[in-house]
Design brief:
alpha/beta; globular; Rossmann fold; 8 helices; Arc Repressor Mutant, subunit A; 236 residues; 2 domains; five-stranded antiparallel sheet
Length: 236
């Protein structure tokens, strides 16, 4: 059973999410403003947070940014639940540190699938051993990553994506495979734009010129690859 915080100024949405996740044996805590959500988190850290982007005064993006700066909240998975469908809102959400995005109206089975996938990141124990590929170094035990020896601040999903890319450096990884292996979605589910957004954000953090990526490259119509040196990834 996971402790899940849902924050939305639409009380009908909060009730729907509460009922759905309670039936799945989760403990659900509710809030109707951003300030109320932060107060709930100060009282007890959640395993997952579901945030509406548009809330009075303190928005869901504001709450997300606050969480990512707080030591005890920075690794909590965040799902944005919002009526906004434009690409700019998605980019803002992921740049703030969000992990996934579900647009209203939504099917409760899709909500359950997203929640299940995100909770993987709170219980999954990645393989031990530091991986290094060229300038990229990732340590799953500490959750730390660096480029050319400089630490890189990553969200939990960004770290897992980079770790998986590093583990399979030199391979071309289709979007469908990344959705299954990194996000934990069953075959044929998950939104390909989720991978694209996280790849864009990851490039901003690891590339010298994100517009002309030299490390994390797109292979048109096939997927993504992390450029490997001739000797491939190594375990330190």
């Amino acid at each position: 059973m996971a402790r899940i915080l849902v924050a939305d100024d639409d009380r009908h949405i909060v009730t729907l999410v509460e009922r759905t996740l309670t039936r799945a044996d989760h403990q659900v805590v509710s809030a109707h403003t951003g300030a109320e959500a932060l107060e709930r988190l100060r009282n007890a850290v959640a395993d997952l947070v579901i945030l509406d982007i548009v809330m009075p005064a303190l928005t869901g993006i504001d709450v997300c940014r606050h969480m990512r700066m707080h030591p005890s909240l920075c690794s909590v998975p965040i799902l944005f639940l919002t009526a906004k469908q434009d690409i700019e809102s998605k980019i803002m959400g992921f740049e703030a540190g969000g992990d996934d995005y579900l647009t209203k109206p939504f099917d409760v089975s899709e909500l359950e699938a997203r929640v299940k996938a995100l909770l993987r990141h709170t219980i999954k124990a990645p393989p031990s051993g530091v991986l290094a590929v060229g300038p990229v170094r990732v340590d799953p035990d500490s959750g730390a990553a660096s480029i050319h020896g400089h630490p890189v601040d990553l969200t939990p999903v960004e770290f897992e994506l980079l770790y998986y890319l590093t583990m399979h450096a030199g391979e071309v990884l289709p979007t469908e495979r990344l959705l299954q292996e990194v996000w934990g979605y069953p075959p044929g589910t998950g939104n390909p734009s989720l991978v694209r957004m996280h790849v864009l954000n990851l490039r901003r953090k690891i590339e010298e010129n994100p517009a002309r990526p030299a490390l994390l490259c797109t292979v048109p119509r096939h997927g993504y690859t992390l450029k490997a040196r001739a000797d491939g990834p190594r375990l330190d």
